[in-house]
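Hypothesis: this fold can be encoded by more than one sequence.
Test: take the structure tokens below, design a sequence, compare later.
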């Protein structure tokens, strides 16, 4: 049985290029820089609330396994990102245990430090792809397979109703075709 939290269940992931998106949504969902830095421009105080950090077994994952190398265990980090105390993004990071060497070991001790602050401070970060999806026909999500020192991790972000991408685009219910 999958241990994916219900708030991160997205069933139809599409490559970013294939999704029908308004320009405002596309701007947010295709962000290649740090989402942390982008969110920080929309609030006075940006915080990370740690929900869970732990090793999990491969049988606790579902479709996510197709996005990462096969491994017995994965490092899981689930967080809520808040702007001025308001939940904006639910985040989930998965790292194969075999990837946790060198700089990647830092991922296990981030605590309430934003992932983006760490990742974008390195010079070995690369992004393989961005996929987008919709949850409950109202909330956009994206996931990216990133590589640090050539080793993969999967990052999923669900943009909650109060996230600045909806305020900035003024198009909360207009998800279009995913």
């Amino acid at each position: 049985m999958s241990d994916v939290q219900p708030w991160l269940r997205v069933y139809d992931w599409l490559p970013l290029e294939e999704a029908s998106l308004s320009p405002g949504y596309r701007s947010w969902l295709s962000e290649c820089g740090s989402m942390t830095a982008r969110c920080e421009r929309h609030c006075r105080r940006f915080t990370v609330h740690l929900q869970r950090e732990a090793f999990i077994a491969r049988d606790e994952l579902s479709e996510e396994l197709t996005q990462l190398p096969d491994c017995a265990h994965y490092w899981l980090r689930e967080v809520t990102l808040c702007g001025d105390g308001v939940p904006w993004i639910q985040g989930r990071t998965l790292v194969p245990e075999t990837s946790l060497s060198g700089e990647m070991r830092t991922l296990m001790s981030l605590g309430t430090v934003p992932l983006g602050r760490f990742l974008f401070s390195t010079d070995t970060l690369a992004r393989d792809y961005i996929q987008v999806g919709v949850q409950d026909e109202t909330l956009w999500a994206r996931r990216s397979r990133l590589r640090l020192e050539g080793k993969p991790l999967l990052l999923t972000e669900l943009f909650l109703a109060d996230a600045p991408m909806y305020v900035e685009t003024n198009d909360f219910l207009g998800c279009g075709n995913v």
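The longest strand covers residues 46-57. The helical segments are 23-29, 35-40, 115-119, 164-169.
Hypothesis status: open.
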